[in-house]
């Protein structure tokens, strides 16, 4: 192409390019390449038309300081980023124009974009990708960025280069595979996954290479490769896979865990499922955990080690939470998962701090967290004969009376009162006083359809439905007293909170009055128990 400079900027660029053509020493090459920077991206096309081949060769020329290869890589990255920014500005500018100018605007944008893009000229260099992948013998985030950018621009060209490798196990592409295997670098792993599954022929050719190396790869790429290839999936038996999972990863995304369970369903019925869930990172949104409610019910027996880990996770001190698109923050699904695991734990083995946290969460603003906490307590009573305290009954009754709650969540509180009646007569007295707080079997369907409903909680309704409330003949006066008590003291904190309050000398009189009233409530509740019973 014949190009004649006209403007002062073009003439200055022409002088720089002439110097670059004559440059031979490393220092002069580096200096002049830096002088090209001000003309990027406006003159990308002209620069690359003249020097794409030279840039390709310079990629592999490296002294003890990695030059001029390092400067060449930096220049190409600058071209890519400047072009992407300019393209974004062109597109945003076109949106502000009138509809009648849309067609003309699109043509102008395309023309300008073609002059700015660094991709086409470098795509035409036969050794460009060979040289880039040659640089991956050692970790190089900049080279990974360039490869990914070119793949994003035109996946077909990159895919065709990979397919052109006659013996891929001996080719340059192996450098990326070895890099992922040796460093577990997440950026390199993500790129390897994208390139590997970009075409059926590629994953087929790579499968014999991948299978012996699977245990050396990060978990995320193994899952993606198993999804893409039946041969890879079948090469990893469930027993080996489960053992490898427990040893290899520190943390997992919920999508990773969902995929793990999908490939090896047997894991869901073992303690390993609980361990995986405890290793989960805070989910980005509540929708990421909703698959749990669709799973089969589990009957897990957790070791003390796992129970201790679960108890500790109920107070996430060093966990960073982010805003979420479908809930208050990633804290909500994070806590839901921990409570789900806690529901399999024998409360006798759970720390008092975790139990107190759980009880506070029954009134959490998040419906998912509150529902999880209530289900956990119900399961503890039904499975482990957990002793609920009167203050918890009062709290549940007060929340259950809130008609603004979603019906399904309110019904869950009704279930809690019904079940807690097996441990506290005060719960049965409350239900006798207010029939609107009673659980009815027809409410079950609304509860189990919710995404917050635990799979193993759904199996408990046969037992729950057998809990029947007998009639009271002499409870009217007692119920009136309880109602007055609840009106005056709407929501009681648990014992540790009462202890904190007792330390404040200004509240001594109030606490004494509260204790007297609670003792009177217990006395009257005991009297009510003589006239009523719960049949299980």
From TrEMBL:
Coiled coil start-end: 494-531
Keyword annotations: Coiled coil
InterPro entries found in the cross-reference section: ARM-type_fold
Keyword Coiled coil: yes
Full protein name: Uncharacterized protein
Species assigned in the record: Tritrichomonas foetus
């Amino acid at each position: 192409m014949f190009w004649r400079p006209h403007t002062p900027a073009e003439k200055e660029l022409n002088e720089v390019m002439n110097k670059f053509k004559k440059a031979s020493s490393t220092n002069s090459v580096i200096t002049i390449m830096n002088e090209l920077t001000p003309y990027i991206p406006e003159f990308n096309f002209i620069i690359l038309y003249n020097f794409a081949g030279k840039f390709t060769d310079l990629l592999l020329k490296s002294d003890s300081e990695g030059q001029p290869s390092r400067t060449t890589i930096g220049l190409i990255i600058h071209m890519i980023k400047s072009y992407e920014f300019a393209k974004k500005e062109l597109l945003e500018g076109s949106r502000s124009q009138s509809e009648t100018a849309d067609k003309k605007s699109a043509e102008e944008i395309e023309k300008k974009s073609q002059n700015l893009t660094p991709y086409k000229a470098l795509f035409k260099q036969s050794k460009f990708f060979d040289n880039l992948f040659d640089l991956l013998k050692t970790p190089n985030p900049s080279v990974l960025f360039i490869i990914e950018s070119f793949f994003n621009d035109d996946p077909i060209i990159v895919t065709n280069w990979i397919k052109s490798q006659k013996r891929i196990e001996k080719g340059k592409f192996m450098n990326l595979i070895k890099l992922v295997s040796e460093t577990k670098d997440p950026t390199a792993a993500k790129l390897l996954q994208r390139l590997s599954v970009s075409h059926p022929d590629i994953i087929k050719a790579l499968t014999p290479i991948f299978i012996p190396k699977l245990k050396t790869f990060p978990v995320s790429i193994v899952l993606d490769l198993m999804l893409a290839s039946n041969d890879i999936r079948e090469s990893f038996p469930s027993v080996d896979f489960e053992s490898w999972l427990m040893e290899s990863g520190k943390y997992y995304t919920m999508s990773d865990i969902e995929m793990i369970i999908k490939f090896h369903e047997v894991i869901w019925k073992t303690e390993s499922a609980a361990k995986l869930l405890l290793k989960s990172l805070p989910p980005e949104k509540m929708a990421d955990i909703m698959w749990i409610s669709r799973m089969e019910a589990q009957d897990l027996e957790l070791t003390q080690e796992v129970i201790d880990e679960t108890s500790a996770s109920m107070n996430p001190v060093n966990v960073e939470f982010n805003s979420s698109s479908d809930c208050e923050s990633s804290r909500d699904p994070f806590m839901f998962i921990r409570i789900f695991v806690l529901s399999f734990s024998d409360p006798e083995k759970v720390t008092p701090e975790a139990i107190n946290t759980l009880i506070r969460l029954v009134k959490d603003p998040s419906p998912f967290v509150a529902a999880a906490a209530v289900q956990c307590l119900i399961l503890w009573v039904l499975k482990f004969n957990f002793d609920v305290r009167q203050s918890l009954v009062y709290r549940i009754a007060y929340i259950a009376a809130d008609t603004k709650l979603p019906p399904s969540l309110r019904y869950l509180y009704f279930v809690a009162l019904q079940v807690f009646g097996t441990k506290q007569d005060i719960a049965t007295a409350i239900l006798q006083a207010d029939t609107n707080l009673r659980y009815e079997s027809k409410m079950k369907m609304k509860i189990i359809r919710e995404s917050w409903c635990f799979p193993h909680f759904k199996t408990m309704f046969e037992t729950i439905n057998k809990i029947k409330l007998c009639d009271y003949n002499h409870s009217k006066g007692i119920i009136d007293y309880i109602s007055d008590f609840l009106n005056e003291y709407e929501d009681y904190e648990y014992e540790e909170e009462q202890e904190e309050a007792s330390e404040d000398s200004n509240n001594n009189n109030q606490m004494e009055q509260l204790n007297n009233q609670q003792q009177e409530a217990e006395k009257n509740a005991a009297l009510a128990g003589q006239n009523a019973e719960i049949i299980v």
